[in-house]
Amino acid sequence: MTIPLWLHDQTPVQGTPLAPDARHDVVIIGAGITGLSTAVMLAEAGVDVAVIDADAIGQGTTAAAAGMASVLQGTTLAALRAHHPARLVRAYVDANRAGLDWLAERAGTAAERRTAFTFGRGTDADTALDAVRDVAREAGLPVRVDTPADLGGHTPARAVALDDQIVVDPALVAWALSGMATAAGAALHTGVRVTDVHTLPNGRVDTDHGTVFADTVVLATGTPITRRGLYDLKTRALRSWAIAFEREGDATGPGGMWSEVGAHGRSVVATPVSFGRDALIVTGARHPVGSARSELALAEELAAWARRTLPVGAEIARWSGQDYQSHNLVPFVGGMPRGLGRVRFATGYAGWGLTNGPAAAMRLTDEIRGVSRGDRPQWMQTIGTRLTVPADIGRGIGDAARRVGVAAACAAGASPAPVKRPAEGAGVIARRGLRTTAVSTVDGRTRAIVARTPLTWNDAERSWDSPVDGSRYAPDGVRLEGAASTDLGVRTGVA
């Protein structure tokens, strides 16, 4: 498995043991940026809170982030404005500005102020950059057009710039927030896997360490692990790569943080001083989970671009992360359908969780504490009353068609059973009648698991990835992340 740069040579922060049958006002599932921000806000308001995570503090999506907290967000604002009214884009900007300000205050000196750039090269990028500039200004952001010279490359870059954004070490921030939460009275339980969430007769969370009870359960798990609202079908699970390099020689650029227009969606940022080691992080190769012919090839293409374009030296770390994009491009935050007001959630940050996460926490906190709608910030009221527009439905239909197509391709590509033992690091789907099996060989051991959903082999992380709901599984069928809440069964022998 790939390990984010932020976690190298670090000792994970662990929580305390879970006491079965404990009762709390709120139980938060997920100890990433959203869950921890919500825990801090609620605990400091005197609410009895417990946070549960199957891993250590701030692992998962939070640790996989490149550390960029920006309201500019590449081409996000222009994409929103293409299908939504200006007031909704303004509300989205205000929400993320509030999230950024809260994060900067809590991170303190670990938050490093930088200029954010949305950049492109050549005349083909001009239209997209003009749209970013115009929408950002319409939404009240003091952006400017720049022609920076320190990004590198043979073609001059043009950029839309927004000053006073921040870069952080996301793992360090998560650990700091966990300390603030526990100092305010919250309980943090790590290494505890949630298996189910119930709403009747009251809020109940089943785990592999026992059951806990709460008036409210918050799902801060990237995508909800309960399918009450079918949000795995209302969002796209997206995976992208990040590679960290040493700088070449005595090179000092580029400064700031950079997000490229266009299909590749590459970003470049230098690590903050608080990390303690200077490096350039390049991200990109974004794609729906389970859709890549080769994850290794995508990562290699990104590395090759960095070496052609930037003053990079030796590679330090390489990792992949996962996030979710809603079909209407605005995060889903609030009460879970059929959750009886006892289950709340947040998802759909589309890669910008360091600002959207705290903003979601603010909204969740106000809703849980019963703050009247009229007393909430205007951005909460606007986002909370948005309507679905035809473009949202169209994106949903298009993504559903993509899933069907990928599922059909997975079925068509299955090999008749029995299959030969896969080579080391390889995986193959075998089919006998209606029974489908995923077979892989990792570290000299061949395993076969029940493929009850279409799966594709991830040759870089050596996992089985579902192109349907974005769930990912280890070679032995253990769930790694995604909408699924259970493991896949193991078949004896090779199919």
TrEMBL record:
Residue ranges occupied by any FAD dependent oxidoreductase domain in the UniProt entry: 25-366
Highest rank taxon of the organism: Bacteria
One Pfam family named in its UniProt record: DAO
SUPFAM superfamilies noted in UniProt: Nucleotide-binding domain (SSF51971)
Protein name: Glycine/D-amino acid oxidase-like deaminating enzyme
